[in-house]
Structure formats: C-alpha cells, structure tokens
Amino acid sequence: MKFLKPKYLALFVAAATSPVFAAAPGTPSIGSGNDKFAIVEVDQAAQDYNSLVKVHDGADVKVEWNVWSGDAPTSAKVLLDGKTVWSGAAGASGSATFKVKKGGRYQEQVEVCNNSGCTRSASKLIIVADTDGSHLLPLNTKMSENNKTFAKHTDKVVAAYFPEWGVYGRNFPVDKMPAANLNHILYGFIPICGGDGINDGLKTIEGGNSFNVLQRDCAGRPDFTVAIHDPWAALQKPQAGVSGWDDPYKGNFGQLMALKKAHPDLKVLPSIGGWTLSDPFFHMGDPAIRARFVSSVKDFLKTWKFFDGVDIDWEFPGGGGVTPDVGNPQQDKATYTALMHDLRAMLNELSAETGRTYELTSAIGAGRDKIENVDYNQAQQYMDHIFLMSYDFYGGWSNTDLGHQAALHGASWKPDTNYTTENGVNALLAQGVQPGKIVVGAAMYGRGWTGVHGYTGDNPFTGTATGMVKGTWEPGVVDYRQIVNEYKGKPGWEYKYDAQAEAPYIFNKSTGDLITYEDARSTAAKGKYVLENKLGGLFAWSIDSDNGDILNAMNESLLGSTPTPVDPVVTNHPPVATATDQKVTGPATVTLDGSASTDPDGDAITYKWTQVSGPTVTLNNSTSAKATFNAAAVTSDQTLAFRLTVTDAKGLSNAIDVEVVNKAPKANQAPVINQMQSVTLESGQSYALHAEAVDPDGDALTYAWSVPADMNATGTDTANVNITAPEVSAENSYTLSVVVSDGKTSVQSNVQVTVKPAAKPADDVTPPDDDVTPPSDDVTPPADDTTPGSCDKPVDANASKYAAWDASKIYNNGDTVSFDHLVWKAKYWTQGNQPGFGVDAWEMVSQVQFNWRSDVVYNGGDTTTYEGNLYRAKWWTRGDKPGNSDVWVKEGASPDCK
C-alpha cells in the first residue's frame, strides 16, 4: 500500500476545502401567497362604517421564499423596484415582514447570498393598495351610446352627479361614464349619521328602509358624523378593473380611484346631503355639532384620498325640503355661512398637511325664495363653485300648476314665470355673487303628468292633470334615455319646443301624458347663456340617465362651436398572471391553471409554463393556459415550483410562481359527527335536524338518515333532514340515526325525538288573522277598565290573544305582540323600542279606527277620524291636520271605533 507524503496530503485537503468547491445559492423562488396588501383596510363583509374601514400608517407586507439548489444562503434582502426594503440572516427558506407606507404596484425580488456570491429571484408583482388609487391601473372608459370624444375641452366647469345607486337598476357603473368629457364628478350621496329627529326626511322613502339602513351604517358612530350609506355599491361590489376577490377596494370607490389614474385632472367630490339626507344640516347652528361634522369630513377626506374636496347639498336652508316642519330662514342663513367658513378652514388645514388643493362647492335651490334665505355674497368667499339646481321647477306634485321643469327663460304663455334659470342667476348676481362661481344646472331627465285635459288651444301646460306620468323608476320622473328611446318620435307622441323659454316637451293627446325635459337644444342654450354672462359652467343631474346627448351639448356649447370628434388615445398595460398553489397526492395528473390571467386592455395573451425547482417532470401543453404533468406516488412530501409568464400582443409580460406539494399518502381518517341534542315536539310540528360533521382528510361526505316509518321526512340524503312529528295520543319516543361516509369509512350518530300530543286550543279563542304570528302561551289579557269604542284610545278585542311586548326581548321582522290593547308587528330587528304610534320599528296590525294623530304617517288612501268626521288621505302626509290641508278629503261622519 502506498501512502501520500505529508506535504501532498496537506495540499489535497486544502484543495478539497477551498472555495473552488463551494457554490452560490440557487435562484430563490418567491412563494405564491398573498400579493395584495392595503394601507386602508376594508372589511368586505362589514355593513357598519366603523367595522368597514380600518386606517393604518402603512401596509405590513410579508414575503416567503425557498432556495432549492446551490449552497445554503447566509443572508437575504428584499427589494421593491430595485430598492432594498428589508435585509437579514437567512437559510434555505425564509420570510420577511416590512412596512410599506406608500401605495403602488411594486416589482418584488428576493436576493440571497453566501460567501460565494448572491442570486436574485425573478420579480413578482405585489400591490400595496391605498385610497389614492396609486395601486391601480388606469381605468380608460369607452365612449358608448352617443357620447363623443373631443380634441379640445373647455376651461369652464363641466360636471355631473354620479349617484351611488346607479349601479343597480340603471346598471351604470363608473366604467360606463364618459369621464373624458367631464372635469368634475359629484358623488351622491354621503349621509350624516343620526336617528329620530335628525334624519326624519329619510323615513319618507322606501317605507323607512333607507332610514333603517343608515342606522345600521352608523352603529357606534356619533350623530352628525359622516358615513357610507351603501357599502356594497361603494366598496364591495365587484366591477371592471376591481373585480378580484382579493382586490382591497371594489365598487364605485375602487373604480373612481382607477378613473383618476386615467384622468389626473378630474375632480371628484363627495356630495353630502341631498333631498332626503339634508335634515341634519338644520342642527348645525350649534357650534359643537358643526365642529363634530366638520371634523368627520376631514377624517373622511384623509381616509378616501381620491376625493378632491367636498360638496354640500343642503335642501334647503330656511325650509321647503322633504321635512316640512324644519327650517328657520334667519337662523339657517347664519348657519350656512358659518358652515362654509368652518369647512374652508378645515380644507386649508388639510391642504397644509397633504400639499393638495381642495374644493368647496354647494348645490343650491334655484328659486328666488330659496336664494333669499342665504347670504351667498358673504358665503362665496369660502366657496369655489355654486351649483345652481336650475331644474325641478315644475312637476307631478301639482296637477294644476304645470310648467317647464328646467327652462332658461319664462314660458311663451307666461313670460313672468317665477321659476327659471335666468331668475335664479339674476338673484345670485343681485346679491353680489361673482359670475364665475355660478354653475348652471341641466337635467338629464324629465318630469311629467298624465291625464292632462281642459287646456287652451294646443298648449297642454294650460290644462289640468289627473296624476303623475309613469316614471322610469319612480312616478313622475322619466330618464332622458327612456324619453328618446321609447317616446319621442313614436306614434301618438308630439315633440314641441318653446323657443322663448328654451324648453322642449313631448305630449300624447290620447293619454294626456305630458313630459317636460331637457334636450341638446335647450342644454346648448344654457351653455350659450353661460358664455354670454361669464358664468362658471354647466353641471347635470345625473350622468346615469343620459345617452350622451346632454353631455355632448354641454361640452359643445361651452366651447362655442361644434368640435370635430377624434379617436381616443389608448395606453397599453401589461397583463396580470394569475395561478394558485396546489396540494395533491400522487399518482395524479396535475393541471396548472393560468386561465384566470387577464389583460387590463382586453388584449389576447399568450402563456408559457416552466419548471423552477423540484424533481424534474414533463410539462404538457406548456404554452397553453392549462398545462399538465404527472405526479408520481411518493413516500415523503415533495415540493415543485412552476412559473407562469403571460405576454400581450405588444410584448408586455408578467409572471407568477406557484408551488405544487405532492403529499405522501396517509391512512384514511373517519368522519367526525358532533352529538345532536334531543328534541321534544308536538304532533304535527315540523323541525329541521342538522348533522354537523367534518372529515379530517377533507373528503366529501354523504349522509343517509334512518327515520321511523310513521314520521314524515324530507332531505334524508343531506346533512339537514326536515321531519314532521306524527299524530300521537300519548307521549312517545323515537330514535333517528344518520350514517355519514367519506367513501371509505362510515360513522353513525343517533338522536332522540320525543313527540307529545298537540295542545288543544281553548273553545272561546278566535284564531288571529293569517298574516299575524300566533300568540304564545303567556298571554296577557287586556285590563278590565278598558272597552272598545274610544277613538282616542282604541282597543282591539283580539289583542289579548298575543304575547305582551317585553322590553328585554329581541324582536325581528314579522314578530307580533300586544301592547296598549293593540296588536303590533315588528318591521325590523328591535329591542327596547316600545310599540306605539310614530315609532318606526313597529307597524300596527289591529284594524281599528282612531282619531288623527300628528305623529302618524298616512299614505294615499288611508283614513282617520277628526272631530267626528272621517277623512281619507290623497297622498303621503304627516302632521297635516284634517280640514286645514288639501291632502285630506272629508268622507262624512265617522263610524264608531272598533
């Protein structure tokens, strides 16, 4: 045997341990976990504002990685767009968490190092969402219907209201808005929190449901702070560009953020108030209440950074809005100016904090009677624009006083018409308001009547109507789109234009249907008037009702000519690769699915799948959206990593890595059933039994119930079986069983059902009406000292058959109780709210006649008694005394109260 000399042995050992034999780490693979983070978090299931929104000073971003080849790393760092944001010690696998304070779309990489060198991963797109929309791709809306694209735009205000609810019936989300033809969007509406006595105007619509929803929205929030009325429409409804399940901001807000990325100069203002949401403003003469409101608006703008200021829609200072008994002209005049002063001071503070400029605007009534209730000359110093609502001058609220609803000048048959655009503008100018701050309103809808008759000559406006025309969504109001698509030019309809008033209308002589509205001609006349009088511009209510005709006319008239339409410029954006991790147990055919990948511009994309790490496999269809490979049976878990790269037709690409864990098989585990509780029923009573079972292996489960022959049952092959107790003459006990199987192993569970004979009702009890919940056993009879017949204190003889109201009990919609000798039904969840007249949570079921009450809402057709006479309401009313108001019709002497 030969031996190496010591000096050669030393040289060999040194060579074997030298860096020549060491290697840098292999390419790290970034895990395919969460890649979307948010600075302002939105709970996609929450309803109340406090639970909906959580504001942070930054997003906590977590990244995980693995190194599958080369020597183990000793350190790592994470880079966003090439800049190091985290560094530290690391091994073959690692993770890091770091805070990102600015929203955006970042290319994330992990670099791992050891003494032999460094290796950097492929980049992965991560999104840090913020409410300025910095994380979103631009939303380039298309010009649909009649909307044109203009080469030049006016420097005047071109604004439109976008109502929150337009995404429903009208199916008009933000991506349908011709945003390039607007420079202001007014988002309607942001509510102010408050219940009874603060938001009573909201009770007048949707049967009070909108009021109830606001109470839910404002749970835990102080009165007179702002919130979001419809979180689903605003933030949770998937829409184009923000439709992913993990997109932090969906709905209108998400789309508006993306819209501003495409149109950076576009101003978007939240409009606070509106017709049914204005009542809280009447309380703001109190400095403390006003300060609370202003502070909440500041918080709102800091939270929702895409907004550019605030619009106040108080309808109306001095009164005359939806709630007839609120408003004090002198007090409200001072309050309005103080409110504008405080809001401007707050916006100036916010500007100093953010470096941005914020606008303060207000939508105001155009009638001279409304304008005189505010000192706009004093308030204008705090305001950027005054949106003069030069529409709704006439409508279906009067069947005898008919007129143009949005006319520029006085009508041809009545030149001294009080309500016109011109009169509203002149009233503001007479106060000293700067012309450039006045923005004139256009209507993208019509108002109308039916049954118009008795008119003079060929002028239906001189006649009398029998009611409101059938509306698009509500009586008396017709969308412009419907007017031109279904009425104008159709048989029976005549189009006419009052050139003196600058107002169109259509009339159907056979039905007496008359609709006064705005069209391109009348809108152009308003635009010309704006230019001639050096006013601020035009705005419209509301963009979801227009087919483009009105907005085109707004732009064209403010430019002073008809511009030549041009094709819009479209910017290309990279596609977004989407695929998910998987766990399989071999042998199995695995499908790598990238079909959820998208291109923001709608371009066709190509696919390329490659293997990044793990035991080598053969990829089939690697250039298709779905690639496959065969995973072999393994004795220990194996992890394979794959990369999907998607590319659009213009060469822009995006990649994502996914992992497939091939798991070693495990012995099957039997399902587990939770023990069911025994049940006691009466004969004929129905009940749903639920088998709560889980499978530790995640296998699908099947169910098989065994039920006694004399017991009716449905759903015996599901987890929920519905049983009906059989007829018994004496108490009897039954055993029911359910067998749950995962396909390999089965388990059984039993439940005991005891059936008693049904209780017999007392002979002298009269069953309640079908639509009333039967009384419970703990009936509280009426007091002996009350008898039917008093109109001031009516008594329902059936009230004693219902359980008495309990202040500690929770009642839900439809629950019925007796209280004060009457039967009441809950309209929604309530606890501690005592039933009574004027209490919104309760509806009286008892069919009794009672004297008129000022706190009760009466709808058209409802009757009441007053001073011995029976009166019938012609329309909705509250607080209008019979005999002193046109809403009531005297029917004759009142019958006895029963």
UniProtKB/TrEMBL annotation:
Q: Which Gene3D superfamilies match?
A: 3.10.50.10, Carbohydrate-binding module superfamily 5/12, Glycosidases, Immunoglobulins
Q: What class of enzyme is it?
A: hydrolase
Q: Does the keyword Membrane apply?
A: no
Alphabetical GO CC annotations of the entry are: extracellular region
List, alphabetically, the Pfam families matched.
Big_9, CBM_5_12, ChitinaseA_N, Glyco_hydro_18, K319L-like_PKD
A Gene Ontology annotation in the biological process aspect, one of them, is: polysaccharide catabolic process
Q: List keywords of the entry alphabetically.
A: Carbohydrate metabolism, Chitin degradation, Glycosidase, Hydrolase, Polysaccharide degradation, Signal
Q: What EC number(s) would the UniProt record show? A: 3.2.1.14
Q: Where is the GH18 domain?
A: 156-561
User: InterPro entries attached here?
Assistant: CBM5/12 (IPR003610), CBM_sf_5/12 (IPR036573), Chitinase_II/V-like_cat (IPR011583), Chitinase_insertion_sf (IPR029070), ChitinaseA_N (IPR013540), GH (IPR017853), Glyco_hydro18_cat (IPR001223), Glyco_hydro_18_chit_AS (IPR001579)
A GO molecular function term, named singly, is: chitin binding
Which residues constitute the signal peptide according to the record? Answer: 1-22
Listed under catalytic activity are:
Random endo-hydrolysis of N-acetyl-beta-D-glucosaminide (1->4)-beta-linkages in chitin and chitodextrins
Positions with biased composition (Low complexity): 773-788
Q: What is this protein called?
A: chitinase
Q: Which organism is it from?
A: Pseudenterobacter timonensis
